[in-house]
Amino acid sequence: MEKLARKQVQALTPYLSARRIGGSGDVWLNANESPFDNTYTLEASRLNRYSECQPPQLIEAYASYAGVAPQQVLTSRGADEGIELLIRAFCEPGEDAILYCPPTYGMYAISAETIGVERKTVPLTDEWQLNLESIEPNLDAVKLVFVCSPNNPTGNLINREDIVSLLEMTKDKAIVVMDEAYIDFCPEASTVDLLSQYPNLAILRTMSKAFALAGLRCGFTLANEELIQVLLKVIAPYPVPVPVADIASAALSKEGLVRAMTQISTLNDNRAFLQTELQAIPDVTVFAGFGNYLLVRFSDGDALFKAAWDAGIILRNSPIKDCVRISIGSREECEKTLNFIKQQLAQFAA
């Protein structure tokens, strides 16, 4: 059957999500999930009917939360579907390209490759910022430029002035896609206010992280109405199941938002605790993080990752040499992980 698949699919290496990698343990800090297991009550009497393509209650609730008009919001099956919709809507296979700046989220490349769209890369600078001088000469045939801020896996914010420069550089040429999957942990860094100035800006959001709804698969694309209308041409007829719309709307209610803000504050406090404690360990580098995770460099990151894995503490290895990404869990999970790291590093040094 594989021989019948398209050549791009035959050659494709699938994205290794945390669940595909697997593991076995009682501390799971590898997928940037929330440790909060919130409960919801469902009224399931409408399941014999198809859902609306864009449920008005959900669209209006997220528009209010994001500070945009409902016409500027599209909801999808996670932000991952938003990535795919943008590529399918704006890129001609075999002709156009996307551009992204590694190290960054891997699904930009996977989605483009699956569809048969060229992938151009301009690595981030040593400070993990946009290399605008190298991006500009590489924009030929590029329709979409993906920028993740806070960036995954590095955790840093992309300089706002560089984002504005990129938007100016790509005017009437390409769409800048700001992936703000983790922006709820630092809302002051959002680019949503730039939508009024730049019709070539699209913003990806998700409820997987700060809203503790990774299993719900509910994401959003924010953009000006003309761009949203293009995406509505290619989205599936019924992308958001009724229970998903109901739960997401409840999470965006007044009570839901109060709970989310409280949990975000707790996770930010836990991140600060873990960062301070790890920084105090000799030969450990903790990079500034603005999401619900930290990137940490050890003298031997692979060995530390494997030792934690074997001990049932599941972290995320990184393409960056000797670095491990640690999701922010409960205080108990953070303390257990911290104590294990201290003990393990002491054993390595012995």
Automatic annotation (TrEMBL):
One of its GO terms (molecular function) is histidinol-phosphate transaminase activity. Its EC number is 2.6.1.9. SUPFAM superfamilies: PLP-dependent transferases. The gene is hisC. Keywords: Amino-acid biosynthesis, Aminotransferase, Histidine biosynthesis, Pyridoxal phosphate, Transferase. PANTHER family: HISTIDINOL-PHOSPHATE AMINOTRANSFERASE (PTHR42885:SF2), HISTIDINOL-PHOSPHATE AMINOTRANSFERASE-RELATED (PTHR42885). Gene3D superfamilies: Aspartate Aminotransferase, domain 1, Type I PLP-dependent aspartate aminotransferase-like (Major domain). Pathway: Amino-acid biosynthesis; L-histidine biosynthesis; L-histidine from 5-phospho-alpha-D-ribose 1-diphosphate: step 7/9. It catalyses: L-histidinol phosphate + 2-oxoglutarate = 3-(imidazol-4-yl)-2-oxopropyl phosphate + L-glutamate. It is an enzyme of class 2 (transferase). Residues 31-340 form the Aminotransferase class I/classII large domain. It comes from Vibrio comitans NBRC 102076. Its cofactor is pyridoxal 5'-phosphate. The lineage of its organism: Bacteria, Pseudomonadati, Pseudomonadota, Gammaproteobacteria, Vibrionales. This is Histidinol-phosphate aminotransferase. It comes from the Bacteria.
